[in-house]
Amino acid sequence: MKKLIVAVAAAGLFSLAACGEKSANENASENTAAVLENTAENLEAAADNATTAGAENALENASANAAAGAEAADEAGDDNVAVNASQANAAAAAAK
Q1: Which of 17, 22, 80, 92 could lock onto 68 through a cystine, CB 3.0 to 4.6 A?
Q2: How far is it, in rounded angstroms, from Cα 36 to Cα 93?
Q3: What pTM was estimated for this model as a whole?
C-alpha cells in the first residue's frame, strides 16, 4: 500500500510539473522585475519626502532607473532569458 501511495504521489507531481509552468529563467526575471519595481516605488516615496531639491532630483532619477531596469527584466523574461538586477540596470542605463 505504501508503494502505491508513493507511486500515485509521484505521478501527481509529474503531472503538475507538465502543466506549462514558467521556466526558472522566467521566474527569475519576474522576481527581478518585481524587486526593481518595489525599489522604484520606495525611491519615489523618498523623493517626495526629500528636504532639498537636489536630493529630490537624485532620488527621482534613481527611481526612473529602477523602473527602467524593471521593464528590461520583464522584457528579458519574455525572451526566456534570466537576468539579475545589475544586468537590468545596465540595460536601462544603455537605453537612456
Answers
A1: 92
A2: 14
A3: 0.60
Choose among 72, 75, 74: nearest CA to 87: 72
Q: Which residue has the cell 532620488?
A: 59
Model pLDDT for residues 54-75, shown as the tens digit of each residue: 999 999 999 999 888 888 887 7
**Model confidence pLDDT, tens digit, residues 21-58:** 666 777 777 888 888 889 989 999 999 999 999 999 99
Within a domain: residue 17?
no
26: left (phi over 0), alpha (psi -120 to 50) or beta: alpha
**44 domain residue, yes or no:** yes
- How many structural domains compose the chain? 1
